[in-house]
Structures are given as structure tokens and as C-alpha cells.
Amino acid sequence: MENIKSIVEKKIWLRRIGLWITGIGSYYIFTWIYDYVVISALLWYFDVLKGGIIALLLSMFIDFLTLKFYDWLKKDWLALETIKEFNDKKGFIGKLFRYVHNKGSILTVCILSLFLNAFVVTTYMRNGAYKYNGMTKRDWLIFTSSSIIGNGYWILMFAGGITIIKEVLGFIF
User: Which of 76, 134, 145, 148 could connect to 81 by a Cys-Cys bridge, CB 3.0–4.6 Å?
Assistant: First the structure.
């Protein structure tokens, strides 16, 4: 009987890992295209202000739809819910995850927003794992803050790069 239980557990973990590889891979490709192609094109075609506002609003819309899809699907395809389970663990790892998730919320949102988009930050920072229960006021605050911080960072970085490229091209031609 114990052998059957271990086989079932292994199959569950293999399915989870397969879901994570597919979900994370697909999501990475989509966000890479959006970050590097769409934002660059918006900032190049429009100016930094207009293109930045369009990029921010478009990003918020896409992240919101992704969050709705995530809640509707009720699958942990980015392993975020599994990571949140570490909050319940004892020892150093559990303490670290609880601190990052709960006590350091403002700092955590700011730091994560520089590396991840508002969908991922909001989903990770939501209370409870495997709840898929929509957005609270706190979640909306995190979502909006993360969108502004993350997009502001990307827009400034890309605007600097585009300015340099335009200057170099202007110098050459």
C-alpha cells in the first residue's frame, strides 16, 4: 500500500513540474516579447511620455486579464502558490518567506516590481495559497503600485537606450 502511495505522489509531482515548465516557459516568452518588442516600439514610435502612458495602461490591462485567467483556471502554472506554501513551514525557510510575504510588504513589492510584472507580484503577495479568490483592496493597491514601479523602471531604461540609439544613428547618418 505504501508503494502505491509513493507512486501516486511521484506522478502528482511530475504533473506539477510539467505544468510549471509549460506555464513558466510560455509566460516568459510572452513577457519577453512584450517587454522588449512592444514597449520598445511604443517608446520609439511615440515619445517617452505618450509611449510610456500607453505601455503602462496596456501592461495593466494585460496583467489584469492574466490575473483573471489565473483565478479562473485555478492551476498553479507559475509555482507561485507552491512558493507561498513555504510560509507555513517551520525553521529558517518558513521565517524568511513569512518575512518577505508579510512584514516586508512595501519593500517586497518595490523590489519584486523591478524584476517581475504586476500580475506575478500581486499573485505572490495575495494572502493564502490556492485560493484563487479575486482581489481585495490590499491586492489592488499592490497591483497598482507594482504596475507603476515596474513600468516606470522599464520605461526609463528603454527610454535611455532608445535615446542613445537615436543619437548614435543621428551621428552616423
Answer: 76
